[in-house]
């Protein structure tokens, strides 16, 4: 089984990536990168990462989140987080990235936040 499983679904013009597993150096970080960059290549610019199934994120995973956020934002898109776990929230607080990412606990609220 892959370290990180990513399932894609659409809600209007927003692409939701339901993620399960770990976003760590190696396969997990690469899976995240490939999934998001693939969406960008398809012209999909509104991306919501559902983190409810993510159990572990390391520094490489945080780096991938930042790199993808930057790439999507630079191309005029938006990348937001949904259902971050307490562990992920604590990691974002420690790294002072909590204010960088728009995060939501409710999917409909997150979907309505996209412009």
Mean pLDDT: 94
Q: Low-confidence stretches at least 5 residues in length (pLDDT < 50)?
A: none
Q: What is the string of helix and strand elements?
A: EEHEHEHEH
Question: Structural class per helix/strand content?
Answer: alpha/beta
Portion in strands: 25-35%
- Main sheet, how many strands, which sense, barrel? 5 strands, mixed
Global geometry: globular
Question: Gyration radius, to the nearest Å?
Answer: 13 Å
Total number of helices: 4
Straight-line N-to-C gap: 36 Å
Topology diagram in text:
Blueprint (H helix, E strand, L loop, with lengths): L3 E8 L2 E10 L3 H15 L4 E12 L1 H16 L3 E5 L3 H9 L8 E2 L2 H6 L3
Parallel strand pairs: 2-3, 3-4, 4-5
Antiparallel strand pairs: 1-2
How does this structure look, described?
The protein is of the alpha/beta class and 115 residues long. It has helices at residues 27-41, 59-74, 86-94, 107-112; strands at 4-11, 14-23, 46-57, 78-82, 103-104.
Summarize this entry quickly.
The chain is of the alpha/beta class and 115 residues long. It has helices at residues 27-41, 59-74, 86-94, 107-112, and strands at residues 4-11, 14-23, 46-57, 78-82, 103-104.
Give a quick set of tags describing it:
4 helices; alpha/beta; five-stranded mixed sheet; 115 residues
